[in-house]
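lol so apparently i was supposed to do this last week
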Amino acid sequence: MEVVIVPDAKAGGELIAAAIGRLLSHKPGALLGVATGSSPLPIYEALTAKVRAGEVDASRARICQLDEYVGLPAGHPESYRSVVLREVVEPLGLTEASFMGPDGSAEDIQAACEAYDRALGEAGGVDLQLLGIGTDGHIGFNEPCSSLASRTRIKTLTEQTRVDNARFFDNDIDQVPHHVITQGIGTILEARHLVLLATGEGKAEAVAQTVEGPVAALVPASALQLHPHATVVVDEAAASKL
Ligand code: GLP
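anyway here it is w/ GLP bound
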């Protein structure tokens, strides 16, 4: 695992956007796995700026989702499908045709999970998967104690994650769904390159356990230690307990 400490979130975003630019220059149709939450926003801003400046050609890029809430009505602004379309797909000038994600409103959620897991493989696998990290060390929505071999499946959110995410739902925890679909840790580990960005002091403990602790289901992000090409980018604050 490679750990890169940058001065701030903006610098982390620039660094990772540049890496995505290099990937797209030698593989224009690369499949980019994107994460939601606040942490990756500087990456999307920097990448969008590079595309608009003509420094990066993302016109053939394909985008795929990491996770999704279950049961939000289609088109809900906080469904991760809506978020990724708004924050990544549209700014990059792409269309829904180049985007794939799990169906969180499917009648048969289990079948939707299996279909998405299969679809990722059929699409040739994820070339670069962006990850954030939860304060409890989760990646995607793989909460502590998720199997390190898990596949895309339905999970129940912990109270802590629902509290953390309530800010996207008018600070009303009752609006935060209880269930989610997430790529499993085994699924995530199949991506060719994993890039985790963590910023702010609130992530320092989770980062320290991810990088320096044992590989353990209690800290799902520690599974990155098992991956041959994992990069953890942290700002000074998130690195403060390393
Ligand atoms: C959610 C997402 C994760 C993300 C995490 C941290 O739980 N499912 O993919 O990493 O939030 O979000 P933030 O970056 O806003 O702290």
